[in-house]
């Protein structure tokens, strides 16, 4: 394998075709079904699928025997299934998704979620990094190998359209396609993050999640606050009290021991190593307001907080009028959307049921309290890397990034990993991505760092080739 040719081929393909394709993809507002209930009627998801399908089909002639199908199960989001024959009977699965998070506010002037803007090495817009590039990067890797005749195992590319909603459609597709997918020995996922853009980062674990809508109602309609305050308990105060059952309001620590899991010693050591590599960048990458501080200055604890400990975020609210129209009214109800991250080895469904019981039991003052569960997904803890894969990622990181590979858990969730880990316990996993400092997935000013996208594609090509070589031994 000529690594210089890999580098040139992948870089040229990104510049000539992939970046323009990503710009067209960013323009499509194909929000995940949780955020667009009328996604079928709007047609944006189909438009994103068509864009990727069309480009991928132009590459199939360069991959002899390759096939592509858009699989559609009744009532579910579509899935792109690509199969590329290999030079042995082994299987590599390469995974990504094409659905997107909603717009979010706060985009800088000239930027927007559906407006692709290329500034230097960064392409701004929703979904490029999370993770519309996956299908392009996966095919670029395989095309680079085929261009110089480097053998590889049979490869299956799966691109789903429901990940940002918890991948609730994906199990049905995995079952439907089980005989075609086969029994992979290597799974490559490009939907994760990187601690910096200077080296390859392997994701060692992913937190699970649960969440939903917590509603507190005290009245049938709003009433004069001067008349009712002191008599009618505020729905906001009750909601605050309920949240304090779950989260310590002073420290942010989740209170119930049932929502914790034991952290493996290896993960603690890897967190220390990651903290040593990243230093203050662990928290300085976030756009803090002036004077704001992280929850602690212990860098290892920050890594463990975001990778192995449960944490709560309130991501939306209802029942609160805009400030300019907030009259002197004691409001009838307050509702918030909760997103609770749970440890990688916790059961997301059980965590959700626990939280529901915790919040709904014994409501203060007899208020009407409901917690509507909307999502749950268990996390994932990677199996120990086999010697060949550890050597392969180390060599690939040195070759294409010029620095050693690094290892760290991620705070986000990729439900597919836990699902595949359970179905294929003998598989090895290469989980990586381009979501580095300031890339801001799900938020304003999201961008993909193009040089990292290129290098990750090169790494995938290199590792897939080494996977074939170790299979011959």
From TrEMBL:
The keyword Protease applies. It comes from the Bacteria. Keywords: Hydrolase, Metal-binding, Protease. Pfam families: M20_dimer, Peptidase_M20. CDD domains: M20_dipept_dapE. Residues 205-363 form the Peptidase M20 dimerisation domain. The keyword Metal-binding applies. This is M20 family metallopeptidase.
